[in-house]
Specification:
Layout lengths: L1 E6 L13 H7 L3 E6 L9 E4 L9 H10 L3 E2 L2 H7 L4 H6 L9 E3 L11 E5 L9 E3 L4 H11 L3 E5 L4 H4 L1 E7 L2 E8 L20 E3 L4 H18 L8 E8 L5 E7 L14 H13 L2
Parallel strand pairs: 1-2, 1-3, 3-4
Antiparallel strand pairs: 5-8, 6-7, 6-8, 9-10, 9-12, 10-11, 12-13
Organism: Saccharothrix coeruleofusca
GO molecular function: ATP binding; metal ion binding
Keywords: ATP-binding, Nucleotide-binding
């Protein structure tokens, strides 16, 4: 059995967080190697999306590649839905606790009264996201115009500055582990040497029961919208932040190419991932 781990040309050998995956897959009898997503395709039983982090600048090309790639995990329909962050509006409509989200286009003027965030509907690694001071609508409007496309407008959840985000990771629909992410949109935020993403401050996490329940609800709602079973998602990362009253709110659901926090997880996490890949090969 052969699996390709799709990456981008900037990271031809994958991201360091995924360093244990090739060996973990080998332990369950799956030969894995990295392949740049837009290079000449190689034969494989499955293609697993990993560090394809240049897709945001080439979305149409990336989606066309996903559509024609057999055995893609997660599937192309999931990729198309999840690369456009307006899915948050769709999930909020199911009753999930989601960070309040408005889609803004040209001429938008309904800015939040407090501090808020403007970010592109297609983006990764917090690129293009701007934290806007309360009342600074000129900066917000200028940023929206510079994005040259639709954007999300969300009230900034100030508690994240103290406690950060909690990312809950699932393999094959089953909870695996969680990790903590420090606030990203801070004055000292810097990009890594590749320029693909803002450097994250990460650590281990033990999410509360409330966080676990919301994350489970998110997966149930998303798979319902997509018409899939939870087992059909090779991986999912549910990013939650505390609202003003401490209630966990969905910030993002990552189903395309998320970092999965292996370096912050227990040693069994790569093996759980490998078992999920093996299960997908049998379907």
């Amino acid at each position: 059995m052969k699996v390709l781990l799709a990456t981008c040309a900037t990271l031809p050998d994958g991201d360091a967080d995924d360093a244990a995956l090739v060996d973990a897959l080998g332990e369950v009898g799956v030969h894995a190697s990295y392949a740049v997503w837009d290079a000449e395709p190689a034969q494989a039983d499955r293609v697993v999306l990993r560090s394809t982090w240049d897709y945001t600048d080439r979305l149409a090309e990336f989606l066309a590649w996903a559509d024609r790639t057999p055995g893609l995990l997660n599937p192309a329909g999931v990729v198309r839905w999840n690369t456009d962050k307006t899915y948050l509006v769709e999930l909020a409509a199911t009753g999930l606790p989601v960070v309040p989200t408005t889609v803004a286009g040209p001429g938008f003027a309904d800015w939040p009264s407090g501090e808020f965030v403007v970010k592109p509907t297609v983006g990764a690694g917090s690129r293009g996201a701007l934290r806007v001071a309360a009342g600074d609508v000129d900066a917000a409007a200028a940023h929206l115009a510079a994005l040259d496309g639709p954007a999300l407008v969300q009230p900034y959840q100030a508690a994240v500055d103290e406690v950060g985000e909690t990312a809950l990771v699932f393999f094959g629909g089953q909870y695996s582990h969680a990790f903590a992410k420090g606030a990203m949109l801070t004055p000292d935020a810097t990009y890594d040497e590749t320029g693909l993403y803002i450097v994250e401050r990460l650590g281990g996490a033990q999410p509360s029961a409330a966080y676990r329940r919301v994350a489970e609800d998110v997966l149930d709602a998303a798979t319902g919208v997509l018409g899939l079973s939870r087992a059909e998602l090779l991986y999912a990362r549910v990013d939650l932040v505390p609202g003003a009253d401490g209630t966990p709110l969905l910030l993002e659901l990552e189903l395309v190419e998320p970092s999965l926090g292996f370096r912050q997880a227990d040693a069994g996490a790569p093996l759980r991932f490998a078992s999920s890949v093996r299960a997908a090969l049998s379907r």
